[in-house]
Amino acid sequence: MHELSIATNIVEIAVEEAKKAQVQDFSEIVLEVGALSGIVEEALEFAMAEAVKGSPLRNAKRVLITIQGKARCNQCMQEFITPDHFTPCIECGYPYTDIVKGKDLIIKSLKY
Amino acid sequence: MCGTCGCGEDAGIRIRKPGDHNDHSHDGGHHHHHDHHHDHDHDHHHEHSHEINLQVNVLSKNNLLAERNRGYFEARNVLALNLVSSPGSGKTSLLERTIKETGDKTQYFVIEGDQQTMNDAERIAAAGASAIQINTGNGCHLDAEMVNKAFKELDIQDGSVLIIENVGNLVCPSMFDLGESKRVVVISVTEGDDKPLKYPTMFETAQLCIINKTDLTPYVDFSIEKVKDAAMRVNHHLEFIEMSVKTGDGIKAWYEWIERNR
Predict the structure, then answer these.
(1) What is the pLDDT of residue B178?
(2) Which of A47, B57, B105, B253 could cross-link with A4 by S-S, CB 3.0 to 4.6 Å?
(3) Closest residue, chain B, to A18 (C-alpha)
């Protein structure tokens, strides 16, 4: 639901990086979208298409990589891929786990 | 258009104290586009492409300001609580009763968040605590920047308790760190007992879960065991307090929790 705000943040960061690198345009941006970040990729793409207009990202190829969610069991410490916040441990069935991967949205790289 | 969720008209964000006659309005100012752009025709062609390895967490902008808020609260020895829930779970009533019953021993400051009206801040002021109201217009959550602006208008004292009553919304506030010491999620027995599974992010990011309106348990199909089990599955670090703000049953555990966390 906040994909527009996030897209705008991404563009702001790209503007800063463009200044630092002294370039006008980026050719590519790679984003890592955590499956448990709450971000809907289609909505983000839709928002990005608008937000990049007139910015250093306006011609950049957008690469979105989905990062799968990973949980760690509190009992047997086994780490496993999980689609949500509450799947029990696949190894021992213990219901209490901690999410260790997949909650973030990261700008991995910019190319020019 | 609301810069946060892209809906409706930008009514602007307003921050006011009860009794404020100057209706000053703060512009949300969350984002601005720099549209000036020089279009050079480069004669030379770049043969090599350069890669900037960023690894920047995009949600960091709010997080950075939230950490500044957190640092301020820690330096002033202020317990800052972010109170979140669906609309109507009893957050404001909980605060009114808390202020009336423990306000002589503890100094409270309250930041209220709603789309419109000063109603909640006025209730808090009437209960005897300093309050300030943030109206988000079409916005659906409070963020670190709004809280940063609001607490500067409250004369917060060292060693006091600051309670931020977030906009009633079980979805969006979960994603915005305000710089709080603890996040408290309130759910009432008139809601569904599978709510923690349906809205996991909110329960995952909280430390205390208050189950309110227990006086109504005989009249609804709500299992307290089931809601606790659901919440534990999402976040097994959660503490629970069951209470009825209306009757006062169980509320002492909340006062004790506040004391323990100061």
Answers:
(1) 97
(2) A47
(3) B52
Torsions phi, psi for B25 (to 5 deg): -115, 130
Token pair belonging to A105 = 């949205």
State the sign of the Cα–Cα–Cα–Cα dihedral A100, A101, A107, A109: positive
For chain B positions 71-100, those within 8 Å of chain A (CB to CB) are none
d(CA A16, CA A56): 10
CA distance B35 to chain A (A): 6
Residue A6, pLDDT above cutoff 70? yes
Residue (of B1, B144, B63, B35) closest to A11 by Cα position: B35
Q: What is the rounded distance in angstroms from the CA atom of residue A45 to the CA atom of residue A41?
A: 6
Does B238 touch chain A if contact means CB atoms closer than 8 Å?
no
* Residue B4 confidence (pLDDT) above 80: no
ipTM of the complex: 0.83
Which are the contacts of B122, defined by CB distance < 8 A and separation ≥ 6? Answer: B18, B131
Strands B79-85, B161-165: parallel, antiparallel or unpaired by DSSP? parallel
Q: What is the pLDDT of residue A64?
A: 95
Amino acid B47: pLDDT: 61
Q: Is the pTM for the entire model greater than 0.95?
A: no
Minimal Cβ distance to A54: which of B35, B172, B201: B35
Q: Cα separation of B53 and A110, whole Å?
A: 7
pLDDT single digits (tens) B52-101: 999 988 876 788 899 999 999 999 999 999 999 999 999 999 999 999 99
Is residue B135 within 8 Å of B14, Cβ to Cβ? yes
CA separation for the pair B181, B73 (Å, rounded): 8
Q: Which two tokens stand for residue A49?
A: 């298409």
Look at residues A25, A44, A24 and name the one whose alpha carbon lies nearest to residue A34.
A44
Cβ atoms A86, A2 nearer than 8 A = no
Most B-contacting residue of A6, A9, A100 (CB-CB within 10 A), to test interface:
A9
Q: Do A69 and A82 form a contact (C-beta atoms < 8 A)?
A: yes
A108 interfaces chain B, CB cutoff of 8 Å: yes
User: Which pLDDT score is estimated for A35?
Assistant: 93
SS3 label, residue B203 = helix
Sheet order of strands, A28-34 included: A61-67, A28-34, A105-111, B51-57
